[in-house]
Amino acid sequence: MNIRRKRAESVFFYTFHKCASTLFGAYTLKRVKGLHHVDYAQDIYVGKITEGTEMEFAPSGCIYGPIRLSVDPGEPEYDLLVAPTSTAEFVRKRSALFLIRDPSDILVSSYYSFGFTHGFSPVPEVRQMQEDLQRSIQEKSIDEYVLEAADNQRTYFGRLNHLATVCERGTVLRYEDMINDFATFAARLCERIPLSKRTLNKMERSTRPRAVVDNSSHRRSGRVGGFRDSLAPSTISVLNTTLAAELDRFGYEA
Questions:
Q1: How high is the mean pLDDT of the chain?
Q2: Domain annotation covers residue 3
């Protein structure tokens, strides 16, 4: 007698830019046992999904992500993907992962990435936004940029915290734990999405920080707390005040 095995429940993977989202999107999520990877953000980025496209979210059989909460209203990725998937009603009864990183490290990494090394979308509307952002960043020093962008970063963390709080079956993971204690990070990750030992070993190798910072690379360092070597003490002091609630909430030291 043929017995059809029930498909595993779908999982939603939320994170930010500059938080290993590329690794998860290009590698890890593609290798989750029993779940088909759906990357709507990438489809929007290359123009496969445009305004008016109806996206489906199956209750089982899929892993959706990365869903980057660090995009803004008006951007296609926000309007088409982030907005509909970042409400309490959407996430409350779903299974979800939330990957975060020290916001100060995110800000420094964003400066170099979006200002100097990030590629451009083939979609004219998206490309124009990226080019405008790049020009704007290149006109600023790194300290000027992070101070101006800190409020937006606080908004992004607020979105994630809200979703993680209302999600009844959500797991919050920290980038820093992936770097400093990979075994414990992997165990918690695999409670939500099953991954092979081979996949985890490749992840661990891929996430080891560079010995020397390379500002010309999309992945310039990967170090924990690297912002302390990039920013003026006065800038760090302002960030610690601006982001105090976020740092405290997720266990980061000011």
A1: 90
A2: no
